[in-house]
Amino acid sequence: MIKLLGILLVAIGFGFRVNALVVVLVAGLVTGVSAGFSLRETVTMMGKFFVENRGLILPIVLMLPVVGLLEKHGLQERIAWLMRKTRTATAGKVYWLYQALRGGLSVLGISLGSHAGMVRPLIVPMAEGAARALRAEGAPKGRGELTEGGRERLRAHGAAAENVGNFFSDDILVAVGALLLVKGMLDAAGVPVSLADIKLWSVPTALWVLLVGWWRYRALDRWLAKQKDGGK
């Protein structure tokens, strides 16, 4: 069990809002050392895996300065302004449409975005803009702003839309490596299963998750409406 100490450190670090990069690095070092490797061996393996997977990591690293420049020049403010002008938009509708689109493209192995490249700079500001527009309708001047708790809840739902939309839809076609990964793990565990069986049960799971998302985002809109009326 001591080898899983790194998972506990990740949970504690994220819970106390410690810098994510520091938390992951410390957890990796602790996991390696607790597994019986020396500190030098652990650092060597981390560097080796980083270099071997740079094709996956570099696009994320390079995306950060691009998103930063766009935000510096008012990307989030402009998106939020456009959503406030759209009367029929709600935060729940924005998230549900994004989750559906993310899931549909994940089936084909197409990566629409990520937390850093799509959710934070675009989707969350759209939802916050729609939520502010809802709160501002019929409210006294200065009452259109979201509370800190409201912003945190909106951002949590935005992160969930990305994770759920991607995770539960990439086991339907072999175009995504996750399907082969699941089969490989089951084969290694002595559980014989065909790709057709995995795909068969992945479809209703993806549809059910889409339905649950629709219900959750409607609940989010109802909660925001109560906040507008002064509810807690």
Chain-averaged pLDDT: 79
The tally of strands reads 0
| C-alpha termini separation | 41 Å
Number of H- or I-type helical stretches: 10
Give the percentage of residues in beta strands. under 5%
The radius of gyration over CA amounts to 21 Å
Element pattern in H and E: HHHHHHHHHH
Give the biggest beta sheet. Answer: none
Parts with pLDDT < 50 across at least 5 consecutive residues: none
Whole-number total of structural domains: 2
Which shape, going by the Cα principal axes?
A: globular
Which range best describes the helical content: under 10%, 10-25%, 25-40%, 40-55%, 55-70% or over 70%? over 70%
Helical/strand content category: mainly alpha
Structural commentary:
With 232 residues, the protein is an all-alpha fold. It has two domains: 1-52, no CATH class; 64-228. Helix content is 75%, strand content 0%. The chain is built from ten helices and no strands. The longest helix has 34 residues, at 195-228. The protein is globular. The relative contact order is 0.10. The mean pLDDT is 79.
